[in-house]
């Protein structure tokens, strides 16, 4: 049988790991949004350059 003190330690450890996982997921989500926004901005800029850069033949 696991002593109560060890059991509490394991519960706190699991709670801390869950918090770390949640914070990591939130950071990753924010990074994905930032990356998507930047990709969208670059695509728009590239499309505009292509549109305005073409000359009619």
How would you sum up this structure, described in words?
The protein is mainly alpha-helical and 57 residues long. It has one helix at 4-53. The relative contact order is 0.06.
List its salient traits.
single chain; mainly alpha; 1 helix; 57 residues
What is the strand and helix layout of this fold?
Blueprint: H1 4-53
Secondary-structure-based class equals: mainly alpha
Overall shape: rod-shaped
Distance separating the two termini: 84 Å
How are helices and strands ordered from N to C?
H
Low-confidence stretches: none
Radius of gyration: 25 Å
Helix content: over 70%
Number of helices: 1
Major sheet description: none
**What's the count of strands?**
0
Taken as a percent bin, the fraction of beta residues is: under 5%
How much is the average pLDDT? 90
Concise overview:
With 57 residues, the chain is mainly α.
